[in-house]
Design brief:
With 133 residues, the protein is an alpha+beta fold. It has a single domain, classed as Gcn5-related N-acetyltransferase (GNAT) (Aminopeptidase). Helices cover 29% and strands 26% of the residues. Helix 1 runs antiparallel to helix 2. This is GNAT family N-acetyltransferase.
């Protein structure tokens, strides 16, 4: 299971790799899923697959750490490019499943992508606090 500080550093690298995507990811620690609070491409940059690339990197990170990913899918107020059905379909293509309504009376649902079920990979050796690649 990862340590929080290492996970935070990995998320910072993912965020830096996708500067045109607004991305907010939180993990509370062992036994908890990664929470994808927000992922959105800046309006001027849409249609280029940028959010999809960022999501793939977040999912790869979660898979590496063997933790599920949870989110609340809901359209952004004032954003006419997305609706809930389109968001759900997009997340389902990436392995998420519906878990239920987020809040009664609101246009939002909770979705989760499970952690990988296979055997965890061996720990990467560390040298002076840095992973060897």
């Amino acid at each position: 299971m990862p340590r929080y500080d290492r996970f935070r550093d990995e998320v910072a690298r993912v965020q830096a790799a996708h500067p045109d995507v607004e991305l907010y990811v939180v993990w509370s620690g062992p036994g908890e899923p990664v929470i994808l609070h927000f992922i959105r491409t800046r309006p001027a940059m849409r249609g280029q697959g940028l959010a999809e690339a960022a999501l793939r990197d977040v999912l790869a990170l979660a898979d590496e750490w063997r933790v599920p990913v949870r989110l609340t899918a809901e359209p952004v107020t004032g954003d006419t490019d997305t609706d809930l059905a389109r968001l759900i379909a997009w997340y389902e293509r990436h392995g998420f499943a519906l878990r239920g309504p987020a809040r009664p009376g609101e246009d939002a649902v909770i979705m989760q992508r499970p952690a990988p079920e296979d055997d965890p990979p061996p720990e990467r050796p560390e040298r002076h606090g840095r992973r060897l690649r």
